């Protein structure tokens, strides 16, 4: 029996036609599988920052929206950290834009190395980063932000025989339900600028 057709009915022409159809089905299945892989790759690419091993702002906003809905539904607390790399222009002017890019990658690596795998880290703008901490209180988030800032300050980038030191200003906003994405990011950004002004 071939493709459900009894052996007695498999004339040479029928057998040839069935084999042609089965080969075509296998070919189409292969093409479909390749298309699914390409779509998955493009979806990943559209969420990935062009320079850093982090998600981009669009993907970060989508994830934040998802977690805000989760917090509202289940009452689970969470926080957003907003971090801004200080004096990035000075680094670009003194060492060049390649060094500035290397410093951004260095900071991204430090963030990833010092956060939980369940935390979401994204690049929000040129030298601005966002972190979503799930199931974290505001004091927990402030301790984590302070730790991240300390790690960045204590770990210079080694660039062409030079040590490039960096620092970040940070802000924290705690959410528990009823917050929207724009308001949450704005509040975390405002907290970051307040921190920057206080350190000036």
Plain-language structure description:
The protein has two domains: 7-47; 57-199, Reverse transcriptase/Diguanylate cyclase domain (Alpha-Beta Plaits, 2-Layer Sandwich), CATH 3.30.70.270. It has helices at residues 12-47, 57-74, 88-95, 97-113, 138-154, 181-199, and strands at 78-85, 120-123, 128-134, 157-159, 162-164, 168-175. The strands form two sheets. Strands 2-3-1-6 form a four-stranded antiparallel β-sheet, sandwiched between helices. The chain has a two-stranded antiparallel ribbon with strand order 4-5. A hairpin with a 4-residue loop joins strand 2 and strand 3 (128-134). The longest helix is centred in the first third of the chain and has 36 residues, at 12-47. With 200 residues, it is an alpha+beta fold.
How does the SSE layout of this entry go?
Elements: H1 12-47, H2 57-74, E1 78-85, H3 88-95, H4 97-113, E2 120-123, E3 128-134, H5 138-154, E4 157-159, E5 162-164, E6 168-175, H6 181-199
Antiparallel strand pairs: 1-3, 1-6, 2-3, 4-5
């Amino acid at each position: 029996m071939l493709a459900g057709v009894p052996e007695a009915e498999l004339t040479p022409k029928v057998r040839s036609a069935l084999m042609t159809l089965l080969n075509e089905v296998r070919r189409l299945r292969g093409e479909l599988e390749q298309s699914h892989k390409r779509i998955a790759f493009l979806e990943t690419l559209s969420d990935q920052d062009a320079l850093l091993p982090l998600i981009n702002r669009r993907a970060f906003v989508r994830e934040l929206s998802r977690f805000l809905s989760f917090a509202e539904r289940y009452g689970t607390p969470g926080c957003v950290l907003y971090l801004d790399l200080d004096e990035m222009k000075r680094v670009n002017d003194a060492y060049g834009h390649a060094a500035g890019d290397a410093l951004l990658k260095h900071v991204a690596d430090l963030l990833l190395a010092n956060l939980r795998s369940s935390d979401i880290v994204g690049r929000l703008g040129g030298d601005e980063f966002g972190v979503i901490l799930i199931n974290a209180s505001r004091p927990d988030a402030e301790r984590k932000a302070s730790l991240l800032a300390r790690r960045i300050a204590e770990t210079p980038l080694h660039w062409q025989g030079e040590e490039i030191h960096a620092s970040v200003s940070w802000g924290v906003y705690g959410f528990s339900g009823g917050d929207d994405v724009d308001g949450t990011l704005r509040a975390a950004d405002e907290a970051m600028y307040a921190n920057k002004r206080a350190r000036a």
